[in-house]
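Re-running aldehyde dehydrogenase (NAD(+)) to confirm reproducibility after the cluster update. Everything else is unchanged from the original entry.
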Amino acid sequence: MLRPAALAAARLVLRQGRRLLSAAPTQAVPAPNQQPEIFYNQIFINNEWHDAISKKTFPTVNPSTGDVICHVAEGDKEDVDRAVEAARAAFQLGSPWRRLDASDRGRLLNRLADLIERDRTYLAALETLDNGKPYVISYLVDLDMVLKCLRYYAGWADKYHGKTLPIDGDYFSYTRHEPVGVCGQIIPWNFPLLMQAWKLGPALATGNVVVMKVSEQTPLTALYVANLIKEAGFPPGVVNIVPGYGPTAGAAIASHEDVDKVAFTGSTEVGHLIQVAAGKSNLKRVTLELGGKSPNIIMSDADMDWAVEQAHFALFFNQGQCCCAGSRTFVQEDIYAEFVERSVARARSRVVGNPFDSRTEQGPQIDETQFKKILGYIKSGKEEGAKLLCGGGAAADRGYFIQPTVFGDVQDGMTIAKEEVSMGPMLEGIFLGEADSSVQHLDPSAGLGPNPGSTSRTNYSQFTSDLMLLLFSFCDCQWLGITPESLGIAYRPCVS
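Result of re-run:
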């Protein structure tokens, strides 16, 4: 019996982020416009802009200040119905999209990438305004990976073939890959542009049509890209983008009888709801990439400089707002004191502030809700006996900035050791004894991506065989796993 296959491509963000940032001094980053003009704030259906049928709007907020940037059309079930109808029409046999050669689909994706690259400076500034991540990160990391993702899948568009199989008798046997159809896609707020590319790239390369629900916290860059999709030449109805809330617009996609597949990246709690909705409706296919509680595991033979920086980056990158952030760090007892001391020094040196300042390493959390949740977890850690070594409070009088925080002497039973800390900048240090004792501390149901640190190949091999988490690889290999945090194969050559 086959186990559910799973993949967590978020680990790629950390790897690419480290690589791109290490090359940053050699790359010129154009000066940002800190108040980019907002061009699009409506619903995008059939290559046209629409107000919500209900005429409702919602505010999108600058997390650096708490000020409203603009109001955006609030899509709900009626708008999703209209978007699905447009997508289904675009997918009908004989439509311009269905008649398009696979190589032409690749050319459209490459054209979209070219347009995004043309507007890269604007998009990076808009991402920083709406999301709060440092502009340098938006420009060098997120936009770079968006371009590579779209161009990668553009190259696959005409290279995904079936097979001709020789069999006995008077039979001719072959397989032909067909698109799934209408793909509902629900993306989060932590990497808005990149998540959009990760979902659109494989779906469009393989000839599907899309109804995408973008996060209510960060709708602006996705809506701007919608206009670039039209400019690139995609036929009407192929991509439809509905900003709105999860319980209304998101739920409507997950339960829609005419959506053939739903792909979701977000919280484990909502992932359960989507799985149930898909089963109760038309048994649509489901791909989930959810939250987790991922560990860093530092062995005594690890290079200390490397280990400290890797553990720091694994947690604090993107304000800690990564689904596979290494929030728990297990350190062997004989190096624990030195590792913690140096980790605290590194956290204290982290520059928190205006995300448009090129010196800033850490911007604000995404919104007030996340801000308060993280501070609540910090309070819980202190009350339950964890040792607060640095940080622990707000980092500014305005906006949603939190001090880089490090806890030591964290025990397995503490809330901060068991629960995902709302994607925030809080590192937990836990010491361990023998190399294999780390396995006893880990919760297999919550581990999206372990990050072992050792110079020993034997240690790495032991971790991959002992931990029932995810297995990682590069290039076009599938990443398979068996944890509840990921369901379905995604981000391989051509899967939407």
